[in-house]
Every structure is written in C-alpha cells, then in structure tokens.
C-alpha cells in the first residue's frame, strides 16, 4: 500500500476512534437526561400523593378503629390520594399493604432507593421485555410506611434505541463524508506532487540529454578552431573548417532554443488561449517556411477548411513549424510537403505529410522522446536537435489534443495533431 493511502487509512481510523466515544457519550447523556426528566415527572406525582395522604390522614380516628377498620381506612385514603401506579409498603416488614400497580411487588429490601441527596432518586428494573422506573418516598403520617411508584418506561427505551440508530446514521454519514474529503484532498495533493516530480525528472533528463548532445558539436568546434589556430591550412581546408564550425554553431543555437522552449512548456508559463482561424495560422506558417522549401527545391502545398479553434497561436505556430522542418529534413529535392487543416468526426485536425524517406516501423514509438533521432548523421547535417517532436507532443497536450504519426519507409510520413 502506498504511503499516502496508509496516511488516509490512519486518519480515518483516528477519526473513527474520535467519533465512537463522542457518539457513545452523546447517546449516554441523551438517555440519562430523558430518564431524569421522566423520574422528575413521576417523582412530583409521587411527592404530591405523599403530601395529600399526610394532609388527609387522621391519626386520632385511626387509633380508635378496629383492625378491619384500620385496613379499610388506610386503603381508602391511599387510593384517594395516590392513585394508580403506586403501592403502600410497611417499612418494617417490607410487606405490601396496598398495591395499585399492575405488577406483583417483591424483594423490596434490595431496591437501594434510599438516596437522601436526590429527591427524585430512581432505579430501572427490567421485567421481561418491559422497563420499569421505581421510586420511593417515606411517609411521616402514618408512621412506618413508604409509598412506592412503579412506572413503565419501555417506550422511552424504544425512543433511545431509535435515537441510537439516528446517531449511528449521522456519525456514519459524517465519517463517510469526512473520509471521502480526506481521501480526495490527499489524492489531489499526491497527484500535484507527482506532477511536480515528473516535471522535475523531465527537466533533469532534458538537461542531462542536452549536456550529452552538446558535447559532440562542441568537441568538433573546439577541434577545428584549434586546427585553424595552430596548423597552416590551404584556403579550401580553412573554408571547410569554418563551414563546419558555422554548421555546428547553428545546430547548438537551434538546440538551445528548443531546449528553452521545452523548459518553458514543462513549467507551464503563461499560455494565452484565443480563438484563431486555422487559415490565418497556416498562411503565416507557410510564409515563414516557403524560403526554406524553395532552397531545397521541395514543393510546399496548403489545404485548409474554414474553421476556428481556441489556441495559443505562438505555440501552435511552433508545432506546425517543427513538423514542417522535420518534413523538409526528410524530403529530397523534387519531393512534396502538404500542410492541411480540416474537421472530421467532430475533431479539428492539423496535418503535415511528406514524400520523404519515412520512418522504420520499429522506430515510431521512440521518435517523440527528447533528443531521439532516426538518422543521426542526416539530422545533424540538417541542423536537427531531436527535440522537435517532443515539443510538438507537449504543445498538443496543452491544447487537449494528441499527435498521431503514420509512416512507411521510402514513401513518406504523415503527422496529425488531433484536437
């Protein structure tokens, strides 16, 4: 697994570890608050019943009654003041004197409801599928008795379970959204870093290749210049040496110019897109290349359909000039070069084809590499640098297009820039 994916996974685990306790705590607080509210409501009812019972209780009458009368009087007063959901308990024996609840009350000695600090102390007891909220209040009149409140809160627990489901859904959504956001941000950051690294690597390769390519013409220039300085040559030999120095110097000039262009494109310096007519672009390029074609006795022809395209005119001009220059280098006197611009199947196509020597099939996959030359001796003789097609590929990519090359040896080459 890649480092950035491990980082995303670690961040998601950290987020999950943070969400679980937060969600659990939130659910606990919500449940506790709901139970406390219910306990306060039922506690007030219990307290009111207790107060009424104490107010209506008449000890003097009670003491004068028989055991049967006492029992009837106590039951009457309890039902009158407290009502359903409550039971009257003998504190000493824990016996149930009156039970107005729907349940049999047993095991009161283990309730643990003697919390003096909380007036609404309660205990939750599970009975089958039901949940009961139990509260107890001691009576001052009659002495030795307590009132037990038994309330069913099963619905409250059902709501808490529903709340838990909602909480889970919300936190899961938060986790997924946050996780997706983190993943996309990390991926975008890594892609940007990889692009920067790729650009740096390409520039490093270009500089290394440039250094290697410059060594040959520089060695030749230095050698011929040393010969001219230290050896007496005939005029014909001098002219040949000077011509060689001039040719290699021009090749170095072209090489450095192409190199600067490549570096500028890889750094994505200001590119100005504007709508430009294909005909205007081709006419300008043909005017610039016409003289070179005439010198080589090569026929330069143009065919253009009327359409416009959003482009950086300077870069597109550079693309076409490089393609035409390559065609001129590959085409002997009497040959022809066609420069075309047309639309086909929704695509805008600029095409340069020649009747030159062509490219071997096994070389087609390499010719767009920087400094690669099919025929190095011929390219150097013509002043080639091996950067032209690499530059064209980059220009096409900047315009959202691609370069397609077709060639047959001794028949010619066709290069299409498709947008």
TrEMBL record:
A GO molecular-function annotation: phosphoprotein phosphatase activity
Superkingdom assignment: Bacteria
Record domain Histidine kinase: where: 209-419
Coiled coil regions in record: 186-213
Transmembrane segments: 164-186
Reaction catalyzed: ATP + protein L-histidine = ADP + protein N-phospho-L-histidine
Signal peptide start and end residues: none
Cited PROSITE patterns: HIS_KIN
CDD domains recorded: HATPase, HisKA
Major site of localization recorded for this protein: membrane
Entry keywords, A to Z: Coiled coil, Kinase, Membrane, Phosphoprotein, Transferase, Transmembrane, Transmembrane helix, Two-component regulatory system
One of the record's GO cellular component terms: plasma membrane
Pfam families the record matches: HATPase_c, HisKA
Subcellular locations according to the entry: Membrane
Protein name: histidine kinase
Species for this entry: Blautia luti
Name of the encoding gene: arlS_2
């Amino acid at each position: 697994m890649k480092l950035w994916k491990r980082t995303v996974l670690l961040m998601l685990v950290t987020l999950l570890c943070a969400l679980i306790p937060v969600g659990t705590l939130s659910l606990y607080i919500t449940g506790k608050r709901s139970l406390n509210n219910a306990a306060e409501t039922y506690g007030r009812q219990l307290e009111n019943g207790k107060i009424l019972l104490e107010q209506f209780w008449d000890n003097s009458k009670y003491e004068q009654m028989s055991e049967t009368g006492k029992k009837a009087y106590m039951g009457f007063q309890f039902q009158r003041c407290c009502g359903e959901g409550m039971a009257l308990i003998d504190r000493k024996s824990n016996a149930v004197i009156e039970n107005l609840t729907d349940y049999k009350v047993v095991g009161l000695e283990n309730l643990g409801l003697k919390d003096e600090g909380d007036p609404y102390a309660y205990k939750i007891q599970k009975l089958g599928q039901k949940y009961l909220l139990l509260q107890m209040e001691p009576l001052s009149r009659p002495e030795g008795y307590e009132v037990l409140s038994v309330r069913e809160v099963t619905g409250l627990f059902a709501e808490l379970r529903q709340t838990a489901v909602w909480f889970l859904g919300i936190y899961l959504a938060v986790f997924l959204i946050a996780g997706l956001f983190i993943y996309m941000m990390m991926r975008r950051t890594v892609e940007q870093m990889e692009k920067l690294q790729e650009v740096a690597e390409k520039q490093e390769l270009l500089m290394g290749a440039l250094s290697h390519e410059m060594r040959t013409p520089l060695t030749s220039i230095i050698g011929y210049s040393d010969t001219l300085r230290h050896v007496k040559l005939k005029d014909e030999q001098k002219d040949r040496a000077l011509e060689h120095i001039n040719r290699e110097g021009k090749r170095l000039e072209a090489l450095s110019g192409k190199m600067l262009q490549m570096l500028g494109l890889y750094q994505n310096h200001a590119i100005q897109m504007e709508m430009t007519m294909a005909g205007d672009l081709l006419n300008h390029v043909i005017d610039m290349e016409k003289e070179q074609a005439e010198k080589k006795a090569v026929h330069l022809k143009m065919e253009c359909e009327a359409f416009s395209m959003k482009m950086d005119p300077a870069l597109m001009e550079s693309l076409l000039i490089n393609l035409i220059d390559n065609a001129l280098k590959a085409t002997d006197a009497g040959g022809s070069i066609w420069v075309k611009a047309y639309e086909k199947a929704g695509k805008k196509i600029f095409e340069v084809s020649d009747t030159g020597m062509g490219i071997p099939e096994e070389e087609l996959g390499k010719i767009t590499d920087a400094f690669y030359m099919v025929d190095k001796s011929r390219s150097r003789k013509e002043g080639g640098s091996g950067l032209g097609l690499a530059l064209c590929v980059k220009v096409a990519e900047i315009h959202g297009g691609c370069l397609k090359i077709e060639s047959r040896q001794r028949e010619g080459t066709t290069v299409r820039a498709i947008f």
